[in-house]
Write a sequence for this structure.
């Protein structure tokens, strides 16, 4: 059995990670959970039948020796916790956003000595996205894309102390919400080359933006328009891909099935109906663990969306186009998404 621990006993762990782990109960056992709130972690463990409740990550790693750790804490904790787990010999699966900067991502990658870090990117793993990747060469060249995250988060949502702050969340809806759709767009169109962007704080009482817009040119030449918002009362996640031979669209909110995709192309006929989910991605991660191979969404693949977000913020703050090749270690936005230094 693969020994699994969960760090962060909040909503995302209960709603997404534990159901995925229950589906893999034949080969993965949750042996421990960690949270700084002792009462919360104990209640979490009682509710879900987990025998080990800890308030210290170091104590849990020393006592339980997990093979895999699910990191479900606020973004500012991800990098340091991932590095600690990797150095203890465990693999890590990290919720989005994986960390606050490219610098932090590269620190995580440097700690991958006996294990791997993988990023939660569940929308890549539904059958609709897989089918589109398979038939894309037959649809012709990708030319135009729309990538819309029009979500709604009220003022109360941002009363959680770590939300809406560069120091603790790392960014606004570009970082924490639109990343899902942008990641799927990148999975289908490949690496970007150039981005121009604007951000605004129009209504929410936050340090970060509450809306961003970008124009993206891909290395293939394809172009995309990107919107990320938490100000949109009618919520929708929308992706449109125009190839030379067909248009493919996806409309959903927080997860899709085949019925959420549309295309008039006769090639569009997915054989399976697998929803985008943590469960679908976790199955492949565990497969990779059993083979001893790098899992999906590790290494450069896991860095892809973070690179685009870095470029988007840099373009918005400087008012100039940003090219992917510019985002090296000496670029100010490599270290922090608003281009400043950490306090």
């Amino acid at each position: 059995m693969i020994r699994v621990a969960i760090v962060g006993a909040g909503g995302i762990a209960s709603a997404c990670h534990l159901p995925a782990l229950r589906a893999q109960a034949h080969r993965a056992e949750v042996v421990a959970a960690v949270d700084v709130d002792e009462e919360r972690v104990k209640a979490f463990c009682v509710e879900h039948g987990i025998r080990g409740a800890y308030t210290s990550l170091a104590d849990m790693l020393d006592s339980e020796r997990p093979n895999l750790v699910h990191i479900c804490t606020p973004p500012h904790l991800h990098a340091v916790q991932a590095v600690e787990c990797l150095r203890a010999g465990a693999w890590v699966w990290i919720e989005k956003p994986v960390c606050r900067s490219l610098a932090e991502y590269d620190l995580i990658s440097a700690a991958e000595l006996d294990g791997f870090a993988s990023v939660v990117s569940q929308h890549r793993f539904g059958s609709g996205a897989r089918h589109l990747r398979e038939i894309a060469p037959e649809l012709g060249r990708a030319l135009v894309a729309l990538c819309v995250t029009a979500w709604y988060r009220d003022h109360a949502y941002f009363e959680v102390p770590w939300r809406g702050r560069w120091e603790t969340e790392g960014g606004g809806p570009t970082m924490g919400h639109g990343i899902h759709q942008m990641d799927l767009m990148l999975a289908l169109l490949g690496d970007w080359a150039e981005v121009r962007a604007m951000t605004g704080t129009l209504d929410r009482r936050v340090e970060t933006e509450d809306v961003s817009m970008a124009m993206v040119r891909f290395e293939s030449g394809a172009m995309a328009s990107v919107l990320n918002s938490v100000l949109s009362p009618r919520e929708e996640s929308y992706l449109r891909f125009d190839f030379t031979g067909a248009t493919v669209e996806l409309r959903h909110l927080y997860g899709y099935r085949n019925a959420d995709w549309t295309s008039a192309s006769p090639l569009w006929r997915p054989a399976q109906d697998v929803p985008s989910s943590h469960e679908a991605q976790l199955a492949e991660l565990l497969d990779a663990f059993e083979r001893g191979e790098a899992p999906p969404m590790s290494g450069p693949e896991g860095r892809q969306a973070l690179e685009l977000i870095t470029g988007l913020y840099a373009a918005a703050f400087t008012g100039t186009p940003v090219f992917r090749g510019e985002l090296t270690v000496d670029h100010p936005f490599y270290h922090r998404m608003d281009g400043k230094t950490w306090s």
Notes: Residues 299-318 form the longest helix (20 residues).
